[in-house]
Amino acid sequence: MVRSKARGWTPEQAGSQAGRVAVVTGANSGIGLETALALAVAGASVVLACRNTEKGAAALARIAEAAPDAELRVEPLDLADLASIGKFAARLPEPAVDLLINNAGVMASASGRTADGFETDFGTNFLGPFALTGLLLDRLAAAPAARVVTVGSHTDRTPAARLDFGDLQSEHGFRTSSAYARSKLAVTTFMVELDRRLAAAGSTTRALGAHPGGVRTGILNQQNRLLRIAFDERLARLTNWFSQSPADGARPILRAALDPAAHGGDYFGPGGWNPLVGPPVRVPIARPAQDPVLGGRLWSAAEELTGVRYLSE
Asked: Could you tell me the pTM of the whole model?
């Protein structure tokens, strides 16, 4: 694994995480793997929630090399399938979860549907984490100061990122960039609304967000050849002005999860001269995501679509 070279905040500053339980979705590769690795090294008990359990087992073996004393486990979880999410939540034996890292995501190259008929990006990147968070809310509440960290994207502030409630699932036309950006704006909006509702309910659980910047990971595997080449790890020395390693991409997520000075609703991302790279710092949240009316509408839509209802007003 390529180690982080960016300066600034590091997970070591947060101290030991011994005794804490972390659930990391999509932990089999990329920034999910690096997040799980850092948490394990810090002493946390880590559940690697992965759609592909074979890749999850390989990731666990790699993490165990760096953290041989860590408590690690792979659990099957497909965020594109509400039944899989329900089984995962029911099967999880831990009575309390300190950290839920909603990391797993996709960027579909063509229009597709999840097991429940949702547009692939919207269903996997937003509706899946929404349902999972709701089903684990009691476990999070059982921890003294739990955090839900939802992984967004810098694309949530592009013109393509618009929540059209008449066409949330791209039924009137599909474009890769629009579908992905829309799903990520939904993710950020969800994070803000979740923290607002947790605070209103008097919960000690807090919701935070992060975006990794431009990261050389497998999420682009379905995209065009030029984009895949631009984010190829073998070209890192030529492209490091707009792309960074998975280890560096994981650092905003880890800061949101572990920084004692972080607060509910905080959002972290790369803080270099180019917003796609650099050390993890607090960054502005996309303006639409801060709109409580938009957040309320999206929450209601998610409850209706998934059948998972929680923190309803």
From this structure: 0.89
Q: Phi then psi for 289, rounded to 5 degrees?
A: -65, -20
Q: How far apart are CA 45 and CA 141, in angstroms?
A: 18
Q: Which two tokens stand for residue 15?
A: 């101290």
DSSP state of 79: T
Residue tagged active-site, from 118, 122, 130, 180:
180
The letter for the amino acid at 99 is: L
Q: Which domains does the chain have, with CATH numbers?
A: 15-306 (3.40.50.720)
- Residue predicted with more confidence, 172 or 140: 140
Which are the contacts of 83, defined by CB distance < 8 A and separation ≥ 6? 115
Per-residue pLDDT tens over the stretch 165-177: 887 877 776 777 7
CA dist 183 and 121 (Å) reads 6
CA angle 82, 170, 299 (to 5 degrees): 50
Which DSSP letter does residue 171 get? T
pLDDT tens figures, 116-134: 999 999 999 999 999 999 9
77 neighbors 50 (Cβ within 8 angstroms):
yes
Q: How many CA atoms lie within 13 A of 205 on its CB side?
A: 27
Of the candidates 261, 283, 269, 289, the one whose C-alpha atom is nearest the C-alpha of residue 210 is: 269
Task: Look up residue 256 and give its two tokens.
Answer: 């949101």
Note the pLDDT of residue 115: 96
Mean pLDDT score, 63-71: 96
Q: How many of the other CB atoms lie within 10 Å of CB of 107? A: 23
- The verdict on whether 180 is a catalytic residue reads yes
Tokens of 177: 């960039």
